[in-house]
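Chapter summary example.
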Amino acid sequence: MNYTSRNQKDKNNMFRTIGINDINELFDVIPKYLRAKELNIAGGKTEQELISYFSNIASKNRILVSFRGAGIYDHYIPSLVGEIIGRSEFWTAYTPYQAEASQGTLQTIFEYQSLICALTGLDTSNASLYDGATAAAEAALLSLRVSGKSTILISQALHPEYIQTIKTYLENSRAKIVILNVSSNGTIEKSSVDAAVNDDIAAVIIQSPNYFGVVEDMQTLSSAAKRKNSLFVAVINPLSLGAFQAPGEYNADIAVGEGQVLGSAMSFGGATFGFMTVKKALEWKMPGRIVGQTVDKEGKRGFVLTLQSREQHIRREKATSNICTNASLNALAGCVFLSGWGDYGFKNLAEINISKARYTFNKIKSLEGFNAKFKNATFFNEFVIETQKDIKKLNKVLLKNNVLGPLDLSNMNESLKNCLLFCVTEQRTKSEIDSLVEILSKI
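The structure predicted for these 443 residues follows.
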């Protein structure tokens, strides 16, 4: 790539245009406590000296034991995943613009779609989306598009950032959003859906396990949504499907979610991928792309882009989405992850998450000053604990002991004051869990 450097005159023109005096003003938007301190490296150092210098700085970083989830989770990523997605032919997030010339890339997307369909029990998957939040928002748009209705019912226990994203997507439309309140047991009750569903409801969007880790009665809620011919949208943790019902089993119309748990690193929240599967009747209204399998004139198997519904491919007003990049590298990681574990391994992985979370839950709720918020709830690998302790002090003490503590839910609403959201995955060992419990008992 050609590069043309800028002289000071060029820089001054840029500064003047955007109304600043020097480059440091540009970074004033970053809080000072987040900025890196100046390195003050003397000139003339060799490569070996620089590597030694930066290695010494890196050694000051602490590796924390994480008991926090809330959307991004600490799961083990088998070396097989990095080995496959690290191949140079996969180093792009883009679907090729001359797609049929890149059969290998199309095949990986086709295999990904097939696995996601098998996992969710629905008919058709697209080539992936940006993340779980945008997938949920696209599901809302899809529901409005196919139903001709104008209102979306959303669970209060849907991830708050997903709710914000849906509101942003619908902000300049005539669509209305109605929030379904969570009951005292941490779930959405059928009676709430029954009371809210009417002829203008395009879709009911329910997350399970929900933001508080509680598994919803999706079969009952789906039936309640169908009473007025509303679509039922399931927002799911795909890893939980190793233990719980697939969306296709409770007659969901659309299933979406965050794919980070399927082989993508936490990486401060990205990059990840979102997934979407639908019933066959909805497939031609899906956003993004669908890769299909066919045969050439000689009868040999090949792959094609069956659906290209974004505005770059068709007239803008006809497009179902402006998603321009499917996160195919992360989706490929999900494909490799699922393939590597296989059916039995995937189920076993889900069961390990449940058993470790249950062990931790029982230990913590037995401590003085700690109680289960939702006492009879079924959960996957997250749960809410109510405490009489000082939460800020609690998390500070945990951090001093190299533990990333639970998420403070106090700011969500009054009913969650003094509540903590814990997460326990297969990564946590018994000794780490016991150490957490011991620290909590002494605070």
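To summarize the output: The chain is about 35% helix and 15% strand.
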